[in-house]
Write a structure and sequence with these properties.
Layout: H1 2-31, H2 39-42, H3 92-95, E1 107-109, H4 112-115, H5 120-127, E2 138-145, H6 151-159, E3 164-167, E4 170-179, H7 190-200, E5 203-206, H8 213-227, E6 233-238, E7 241-243, H9 245-255, E8 266-269, E9 275-278, E10 284-286, E11 323-326, H10 327-337, H11 349-360, E12 368-370, E13 378-380, H12 386-398, E14 405-407
Parallel strand pairs: 2-4, 2-6, 4-5, 10-12
Antiparallel strand pairs: 1-5, 3-4, 3-14, 6-11, 7-13, 8-9, 10-11
Length: 413
């Protein structure tokens, strides 16, 4: 009997505990119960009467913060945009590779100031593969698209911004890209170009027509990719452009400060797998304008026929007169150009090189950057206003006089 009495008391106590738990749960549910909305309030959508707030919002004394997950069937009014990726977003006429690679450019003359016995590359070899040595802390080679007849323009650039050879340890070299014009008579003899290069050491002459803007730049990028170290920078510009050297060099320094491998490396992912490991970012910098989604023109100036370019918009590209990139990127672009039909008109060379070929690398559009300071990096001058160009450069140079720099003897001072 004593056993059964203890058993009954234990079960009775357990029943009271269970009843108390159910009663407490019912009270809590009643406190937080939200009656359903009527049909005229819902309008066919799912809502909540409780105002969802973030802990970062301003809170008043009357506010009650309740953390609720957003209903899964409520669409986000601002969906996260997907970054436009590379190869699959190009028109078919550029997405498909040529069956055979186009021939490499050949060169008649190369710049002694870069490849000669006392040139830039020899200075780099003396220092070793590092930017921490005594000779240089970086290098930018400016590839200037010129014409075999533009002797006066080349002279002006050598007297102005092209006269700066070193700015606070960063080496600067100017290389003019001209063609042989396929034997077409231009009034300038081959011996004249050889003499010009022997005096200044800054001519790169390729076998081809320098009136075709696309070929001039592709020849320059191929030479840079095959001749310069991968951690050098190259800049594409024209012989009627005055470059603000201190602004540009400061920008390059800020974007890619000198590092000592392997203390610092940057990995760039490639779509579809793989990566590039380098001491610098594999990006292209637009220092004279940036177009993110320009509509393809079908009539008027700069128009393109549907059979040539079928997409409604161009990929992001640099439309201006100054583009900077690491040599490694220049090499990649020149290689992919050999399997891509250059069917765009020559006046759209920026679209082809910095837009189509860049995107064809299949690394997305994160590898093209608009400079933070739009304007001020360079000015395009009219060839008839040489005096104005000299005055402009003089003002820029006066702003950098206090900084350590080296200039050539032909410089205007």
């Amino acid at each position: 009997m004593r056993y059964w009495g203890n058993y009954v008391r234990y079960r009775t106590k357990e029943a009271f505990v269970v009843a108390a738990v159910f009663f407490s749960s019912a009270c809590l549910l009643q406190m937080f119960h939200v009656p359903p909305l009527t049909s005229n309030e819902t309008n066919g959508q799912s809502h909540s009467r409780i105002k969802i707030r973030s802990i970062d919002d301003d809170v008043t004394d009357d506010d009650v913060i309740l953390k609720f997950e957003k209903p899964v069937n409520v669409a986000d009014p601002k969906p996260t945009p997907v970054k436009v990726r590379g190869l699959q977003n190009l028109p078919k006429e550029f997405r498909v590779n040529l069956k055979e690679e186009r021939a490499l450019f050949k060169y008649r003359i190369e710049p002694d100031r870069v490849v000669g016995a006392n040139g830039l590359l020899n200075t780099r070899r003396m220092q070793g593969h590092t930017w921490s040595g005594p000779y240089m802390s970086g290098a930018v080679v400016y590839l200037v698209a010129s014409n075999i007849q533009h002797i006066d323009r080349r002279s002006l650039l050598r007297e102005t911004w092209g006269s700066i050879r070193d700015l606070e340890g960063r080496k600067i070299e100017l290389v003019f890209i001209i063609g042989t014009n396929n034997g077409r008579q231009s009034g300038i003899m081959t011996s004249d170009i050889v003499t010009e290069n022997s005096v200044h050491g800054d001519i790169l002459q390729f076998v081809g027509d320098d009136h075709l803007a696309t070929n001039v730049r592709l020849a320059a990028l191929q030479w840079a990719g095959n001749s310069l170290p991968g951690d050098f920078y190259v800049a594409l510009t024209d012989d009627d452009v005055i470059v603000n050297i201190p602004y540009v060099m400061d920008y390059v320094t800020a974007e890619s400060p000198p590092v000592v491998p392997p203390a610092s490396v940057i990995m760039t992912s490639i779509e579809g797998g793989g990566s590039i490991v380098s001491s610098q970012s594999q990006r292209m910098f637009c220092l004279d304008g940036y177009e993110e989604s320009e509509v393809t023109k079908r009539d008027g100036h700069d128009s393109v026929n549907m059979s040539v370019y079928s997409s409604m918009k161009y990929p992001p590209y640099c439309p201006g007169d100054l583009v900077i990139m690491p040599v490694s990127v220049a090499q990649d672009i020149s290689q992919v150009a050999r399997v891509t039909q250059p069917s765009l008109p020559p006046h759209l060379h920026q679209v082809f090189i910095t837009g189509i070929l860049r995107r064809k690398l299949n690394r997305g559009d994160d590898n093209i950057v608009a400079a933070g300071r739009q304007g001020g990096y360079c000015i395009k001058y009219h060839p008839s206003k040489v005096t104005d160009a000299k005055i402009l450069w003089q003002g820029w140079y006066d702003g950098m006089r206090h900084r350590h720099h080296i200039y050539s003897m032909s410089a205007i001072r």
